[in-house]
Here is the input.
Amino acid sequence: MDMRLMLQLLQRLETLRRHERWTREQLVAYQGDRLRRLREFAAAHSPFYRDFHRGMADRPLNELPVLTKAMLMEHFDDMVTDRAVRLGDVRAHLAGRRRAEPYLGRYVVNSTSGSTGRPGLFLFDRPEWASVLASFGRAHEWAGVHVSLRHRMKMGSVASTSPAHMSARVGASLQSWWMPALRLAASQPLAEVVRQLNRWQPDMLVAYASMARILAEEQIAGQLRIHPHLVFTSSEVLTEDARRRIEAAWGLPAFNQYASTETGGLAAETTDHNGLEVFEDQVIVEPVDADLRPVPPGVFADKLLVTVLFNRTQPLIRYELSDSVRFSTEPNPSGRPFARIDEVQGRTEDILHLPSPTGAQVAVHPVVFHAAFDRLPVGGWQVVQEAGSLRLLLAGVADGEVREQAVIDNVTHALRAVGVDPPLIRVERVPAIPRTASGKAPLVLARPPSSVTADARG
Here is the structure.
């Protein structure tokens, strides 16, 4: 690891630790000051923001327009604050042999997976990247591991190894004597992942939530034989059943962390496992409904609007994340000043839209299916929406343990309970749940109503 970057990371972590002793009033004052500076910088150095926020210098944050990924990519060259940065050059850099090196010698480039149909590109200079690394370091500290030069921990990561994905970028930046890392692609054959983890024997396991559950099953079955001190999950909804399987496999609970390519870490669990505390000294988050109206604590939001307080290279002010989360109505028992997320339902792209008995479309969140599946003796499950039907994939099912009709009945009941007229439901037993190119095994594969209708018409 670059020692200068390591020192910046440690300095940033020490600053964040001090923030955790603040009162809520001190945090809000800090957010206001950082937001003011961010808006002034964006207006002075970004042609896009000069137009986007024209005449709004005195408006509060919640009155500013919302920034989408499509807008960001369409106006990329004018949005970034370094006039030397050009989208075509960034794409050429990522396609070249030296894509793992900093762009223009100073920018770490991250790419989203494109799950919403269009990948986004996000740049961080060295101090900004140190803040991203510190967000993940904070998650480790909240799980009970103090990050320092005196503490060595071997990490095994099973996620994406694409050089442009944040998980791989963070792992590469942290690779050092203090944190030697084995980074495996979740899309590799499971037997190979198991073999390499057995050989590596990580102290800390980091994996997609779906992959962590699969690995837990391998540990229980005796194929995987590792003894991590910590298990971190991210990128997908961590179900209660997955938590139970991880605890059964290794005798310890999983620590969930919530992050995005655009922001780095957003929130993380602490040792009390009482929701995810939001890193509000690094980001401002606004939970909103589908019409961008504020959503109160205790109610699931359809989206999050995120303002990143530390990124000047590519300012994100009220940037739209299509995540459905619910903020807690209770005070934070840790004593820290941060708000808590008590449940994450996943991206709205993973929400099914199914007809009610009257023909109206009903949004069905993935959590609706959890009760129907999570206690089944299966190695994994997935709901796939097809034209006029749902296909239920079950993996790791022993003969006679699960009756297909019982599964159909459970799902039918769950759908009717939320006002859906259940479509044709089919159960299919598979050797393993199919994974995406990046190695994720999503619980729900949704298709928008328009594409389903088009398919039904042939």
